[in-house]
Design goal:
mainly alpha; Hypothetical protein af1432; Deoxyguanosinetriphosphate triphosphohydrolase-like protein; PHydrolase_assoc_dom; dGTPase; HD/PDEase_dom
Length: 376
């Protein structure tokens, strides 16, 4: 397909930290995607959870299935906008590589544990994974991805951490957090596809779990409009097909809304290159009505699902697992594998080790080290 002038062109990439000869049959962004898919961190995502912990059911979303859904939505939108599908896919597949076990509960607990040692940010950890922690190549640490993929992975970053990155890599992926500029349009698209995907699949998982109901979802205008459409067309439809068809229609409407709103924004700003698009305000967006509907849905899920007493009980136990693992490894680094135990910065080594764990491995390690079993 023909790329828009403001799309990222792999032939004009800002390059890799370590120069490499081009691949004979793949573009630079296709090469990034392939490296991510073959990484150890990517495989671990199958046993890292979104809302429900890994042991709570086989059909709930994991970080892996979520990343695949973001990639699918992102590619569909990118194709319509003339953006680089391969770059969108690479960013989508890598954006959660640094997530801890036990979802946001694990991340929050690890950030608390690391408060005196620079904190913990999962987006920054994803960058650490692809820049430093993966061990696959003889000449360098990490996966040596392109600037554009690394820029998209680093969705959020504190100013202090951005300054540290800038000191190591002048003009690199930390610079935009200091300059207050935007990432590429492909990175912006992944951010929005991430939001669309998790809102939709958390509705599905929430209803499947029994913690939220279709009746409750009737309070949410964005969802109820598509449920009503579904029932008007299929008045005898029952069970999960009502939910699936309503979600499908909502997803399609959000995708088409992003395409239309972004095409309008791109037309008005008329960036002539990917770098010029970085200097404009964020161009990949919802329309104002859809943005308001999406925000209302997020508030509903926060109140009714993420803060549901059953979820809070489990996530409280998960936080305790992470805190006690951190304390155990910090007091006795020899309990970690030798390559982690030998590092000079012990707190960061412990954080890296815990962040790389799957839910079930973290639970087993906690039981081994403490003798207690918090997560059945």
């Amino acid at each position: 397909m023909t790329l828009a002038p403001c799309a990222c062109d792999p032939a004009r990439s800002h390059g890799r930290l370590h120069a490499e000869l081009p691949a004979p049959t793949r573009t630079e962004f296709q090469r990034d995607r392939d490296r991510i898919v073959h990484s150890t961190a990517f495989r671990r995502l199958v046993y890292k959870t979104q809302v429900f912990l890994n042991h709570e059911g086989d059909l709930f979303r994991t970080r892996l299935t979520h990343s695949l859904e973001v990639a699918q939505l992102g590619r569909s939108i990118a194709r319509a906008l003339g953006l680089n599908e391969d770059l969108v896919e690479a960013i989508a597949l890598a954006h959660d590589l640094g997530h801890t076990p036990f979802g946001h509960a694990g991340q929050d607990a690890l950030n608390d544990c690391m408060a005196a040692h620079g904190g913990f940010e999962h987006n920054l950890q994803s960058l650490r994974v692809v820049d430093e922690l993966e061990e696959r190549y003889p000449r360098y640490a990490g996966l040596n991805l392109t600037f554009e993929t690394r820029e998209g992975i680093l969705k959020h970053c504190s100013r202090a951490n951005a300054q540290r990155i800038e000191a190591r890599e002048p003009g690199g992926v930390g610079r935009r957090f200091l300059d207050r500029t935007q990432p590429s349009l492909e990175a912006q698209l992944c951010n929005l596809a991430d939001e669309i995907a998790y809102n939709a699949h958390d509705i599905d998982d929430g209803v499947r779990s029994g913690l939220i109901s279709l009746e409750q979802l009737g309070e949410i205008e964005l969802f109820e409009a598509y449920r009503a459409q579904t029932m008007a067309e299929f008045p005898d439809l029952q069970g999960r097909r009502v939910l699936y068809e309503s979600i499908r229609r909502m997803l399609s409407a959000q995708v088409y809304d992003v395409i239309a709103a972004t095409q309008d924004a791109m037309s008005r700003a008329a960036p002539r290159s990917a770098d010029e698009a970085r200097l404009a305000p964020a161009l990949v967006r919802f329309s104002e009505p859809m943005a308001a509907g999406s925000a209302a849905l997020k508030r509903f899920l926060m109140h009714n699902l993420y803060r549901h007493p059953q979820v809070m009980k489990t996530t409280g136990q998960a936080r305790q697992v992470v805190r006690e693992l951190f304390a155990a490894y910090l007091s006795d680094p020899a309990q970690m594998p030798a390559d982690f135990a030998a590092r000079e910065d012990v707190p960061r080594a412990v954080a890296d080790y815990i962040a790389g764990m799957t839910d079930r491995f973290a639970a087993r390690e906690h039981e081994r080290l403490t003798g207690g079993k918090l997560l059945a």
